[in-house]
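Field log, afternoon session.

UNIT: design team B
ACTIVITY: writing a sequence onto a fixed backbone
BACKBONE:
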């Protein structure tokens, strides 16, 4: 779970820096920009949460392949197939010694 929080923190820091620069470059800072910024920030948080669902599920289920699922989710999750693959892998119960 620590890995997920670190990744989300890095992404949010980059987004905040981008928004701060975008607002600073404008000469006519209007009243509408802060609500738009807040709504965009909320949407970004929701998108990050949805994107990381396979990793969160794997961590909650204490999946033995957590690291591999997180890596798959990070690097191929942007493709729908990679995200679904990570989700299915996170949901599948890992085999134990008694199952063999």
């Amino acid at each position: 779970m620590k890995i997920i929080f670190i990744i989300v923190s890095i992404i949010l820091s980059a987004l905040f820096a981008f928004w701060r620069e975008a607002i600073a470059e404008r000469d006519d800072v209007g009243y509408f920009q802060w609500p738009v910024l807040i709504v965009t920030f909320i949407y970004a948080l929701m998108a990050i949460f949805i994107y990381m669902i396979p990793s969160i599920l794997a961590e909650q289920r204490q999946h033995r392949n957590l690291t591999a699922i997180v890596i798959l989710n990070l690097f191929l999750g942007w493709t729908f197939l990679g995200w679904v693959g990570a989700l299915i892998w996170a949901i599948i119960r890992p085999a134990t010694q008694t199952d063999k």
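LOG NOTE: The chain has five helices and no strands.
NEXT ACTIVITY: expression trials, pending approval
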